[in-house]
Amino acid sequence: MDVMVPNTFKVQKFIKETHDTFTIELKSLETKNGFTFEPGQFNMIYIFGIGEIPISISGDPNKSGILVHTTRAVGTVTKEMAKLKKDDIVGIRGPFGRPWPIKEAIGSDVLLVAGGIGLAPLRPVIYHLLSNREYYGRIILLYGARTPQDILYRKELEKLRSRLDIDIIVTVDRAVKNWTGNVGVVTTLIPRAPFDPINTIAMICGPEIMMRYTIVELLKRGLSKENIYVSMERNMKCGVGFCGHCQYGTEFICKDGPVFSFKEIEHLFGKREI
Amino acid sequence: METLEKILVNHPFVQGLAPEHVQLIVGCAKNVVFEPGKYLFRENEQANSFYIIRTGKVAIEVYSPEVGSIIIQTLGEGDILGWSWLIPPYQWRFDARAVELTRVIELDGTCLRNKCENDPALGYEFMKRLANVFEQRLDAMRIQLLDLYGKK
Amino acid sequence: MKIIDIQEIDNLISLLREMNYLVVGPTIQNGAIIYSQITTSKDLPIGYTDDQSPGRYRLIKDKKESYFNYVVGPQSWKKFLYPAIQKLYTAYFKNNKLEIEREENPTTKYAFIGVRSCEINAIEIQDRIFFGGEYQNSRYKGLRKNCFIVAVNCSKANSNCFCTSMNTGPEVKSGFDLVLTEVINNSHHFFLIDSGSEKGEEVLSKLNTREPDKESLELGNKVIEETKKQITKQLETEDLKDILLRSLESPVYDEVSKRCLACGNCTMVCPTCFCMTVEDYTDFFKTKAERIQKWDSCFTLEYSYIHGGSVRVTTGSRYRQWLTHKLASWHEQFGTSGCVGCGRCITWCPVGIDITEEATKVRRIAEFQTTSMEEI
């Protein structure tokens, strides 16, 4: 087996999520064993003749039969991915990377803070927490999107919201009158979010600036640096520490991350051009 | 029934304020309820109220002829609303609409201004608390301006 | 330890060729020492030596008919073990079907002749990168396990050498199959030879050797001692990792960016630099794509590109990435420095930037808590 060579997967379903985001559901063409991963891990997705990029896995970790990726069409590869349809074939290498601290969070409140497409890498955590509900305290999802039309997994969130054992608070950066939800950046939800600061694990995923300001608010609420986790993004060509591109200080984001505790990367976080 | 004073001292904005100062502002306060869709105030109206939100949700809006009302921010339980009563020419800059059934304590602007003028200790304490809110709103607004999830 | 006459080098090359090794060694090409296939000792840079200083490299006639009296050239052995361009796989796309055909591992058995101590250390550092961790690069590993190393103790150092600071030379101590010391003076020209492995012993037993006398052994030792004396450049490595990691905002990087051209030469000539990128080469009809892996450099803008822009825009930040990776992060990542003190990056820098000087400046500023470039 060569870690640099992808396995082929067939598109089972293409779901348009918002105007620029979509989900693909994939099935392995090479094995019947399914695809197992841990929440927070990513795959390198290869599109024939175009290239390969890292994309986090967005499916349910308990359902190994189907591999789910949600992404936004912004770059060369993702724009090509946006054209995929049922039965198309892509190459997959993975899963790679260190997952979200779902084991460390057992017995604690879990606060998920997502911004934009940053909800996609956190979705497997939600699935995991809900299917192991008794192991966790309160579960709170704070999600910030650009506009109501940009809310990812909207139907699913609405359905989840009807459960009584998870708090979901959504906010958008801008809206017009027919929106009855919150307007304001996601950080404004933190001061009054219902969690116990001394017994909470926070997992944050979104643009780096959003994560920085979220951390500021969480520290104000009294969360410790070890209990705040972020998922980092850098250029990646291999996923296994061979290409060098994703280095962040002494860390390789691909294999030492992408999930880090704030404590681990505090000395680098927000420093320029690291 | 809860007294106005009891409600006030439990609100994050008032929490920790000296009892004599609470007494002073209670004198300017009254309980008000807004049905969904009702406006607390509209742009350019005279501003003479300071709102301490107990429950509900208020949208701060600006009207545009092309798209209608644009929501700039929503406020809810634990927030305060409105500072135009403090700053001349005492006119509201935006619209404020109750999105849900909203219960507020409304403090009379002129009454508050006079009490703050007469008791600088209360005035300073009040301004510190407001400055805190200004800072949070400004921070949030700056991040909002970055349009973080937009196309780069 | 044995002695072989200089003519015996031809026997060594023939023996290795008979054992199906592709013998590569130093040759003269384009005015530099280039590692390339050799078939006889005549291919070696006999009678040549080099002159190196920051940003300068010249091949010059040696006073003696020496075989290995040069210091390292622009290339290192990584060009064989970790080729600059490698095909990973070919993807075929026909009738909406994607098929991926992995490129077979190369099976070449290389015999490297003339490997220096710093270079052996560099190869061992790359071993850690490519098969020391969870993931394995089987292409590299295969070539590496097959290769035969004929090392040479340096008989000369240049002003850019600092292997003594990095504890990587000049004396070859391990990691070789055979090691040579070239002894040359008015009355003698011979090689001391020793084996460092069973494979090496086997080859050595087939060569025409004789036992060395005390004088020959002393002459051999003298070669190494003299070379050590020629090494003047130093890098103070004590606490260097910690100093560099806590000085990420050192003004030195701004200063160096005024000279650095971000050409990436230092990364290309470095025997341990391993960064790579991958590209698809498609045919005209888009039915076939070759997936190619190529050396990359942290000095390019594309290297740190994420959607929206590059993370490391300024040259200073890219130089910092390179220097701190080499001398600091490497320790955390691979348990060793990424620098072997070969001096290539200094010689081949078009503007002569010296890694030891820059690291020292960062140290001085950190130690003296000064931010003034003039004071250091």
In whole angstroms, the N-to-C terminal distance of chain A is 33 Å
Q: What is the distance, rounded to the nearest whole angstrom, between the alpha carbons of the first and last residues of chain C? A: 48 Å
CATH architecture of the largest domain in chain A: 3-Layer(aba) Sandwich
H/E topology pattern of chain A: EEEEEHEEHEHEEEEHEEEEH
Instruction: Tell me the number of strands of chain A.
Output: 16
Low-confidence stretches of chain C: none
Work out the helicity level of chain C: 25-40%
Measured by DSSP, the beta-strand proportion of chain A falls in 25-35%
The CATH superfamily title of the largest domain in chain A: Nucleotide-binding domain of ferredoxin-NADP reductase (FNR) module
Number of helices of chain A: 5
State the name of the first-level CATH class of the largest domain in chain A.
Alpha Beta
Biggest interface pair, residues each? A-C, 42 and 52 residues
Rounded to an integer in angstroms, the radius of gyration calculated over CA atoms of chain C is: 22 Å
Can you tell me about this structure?
The complex is a heterotrimer of chains A (274), B (152) and C (376). By secondary structure, chain A is of the alpha/beta class. In chain A, 15% of the residues lie in helices and 31% in strands. Chain A folds into 2 domains: 7-96, Translation factors (Elongation Factor Tu (Ef-tu), domain 3, Beta Barrel), CATH 2.40.30.10; 109-231, Nucleotide-binding domain of ferredoxin-NADP reductase (FNR) module (Rossmann fold). Chain A is globular, with a radius of gyration of 18 Å. With 152 residues, chain B is α+β, with helices and mostly antiparallel strands. The longest helix of chain B has 26 residues, at 120-145. The radius of gyration of chain B is 16 Å and the shape is globular. Chain C has 2 domains: 2-87 and 105-230, no CATH class; 240-275 and 297-375, no CATH class. Chain C has 376 residues and is an alpha+beta fold. Chain C has a 7-stranded mixed beta sheet, sandwiched between helices. In chain C, strands 7-6-13-12 form a 4-stranded antiparallel beta sheet, with no helix packed on it. Classes of the chains: A alpha/beta (274), B alpha+beta (152), C alpha+beta (376). At the A-B interface, β10, β11 and α4 of A face β4, β5 and α4 of B.
What features would you highlight for this structure?
heterotrimer, A: 274 residues, alpha/beta, Elongation Factor Tu (Ef-tu), domain 3, Rossmann fold, 6-stranded antiparallel beta sheet, 15% helix, globular, B: 152 residues, alpha+beta, Jelly Rolls, 4-stranded antiparallel beta sheet, 4 helices
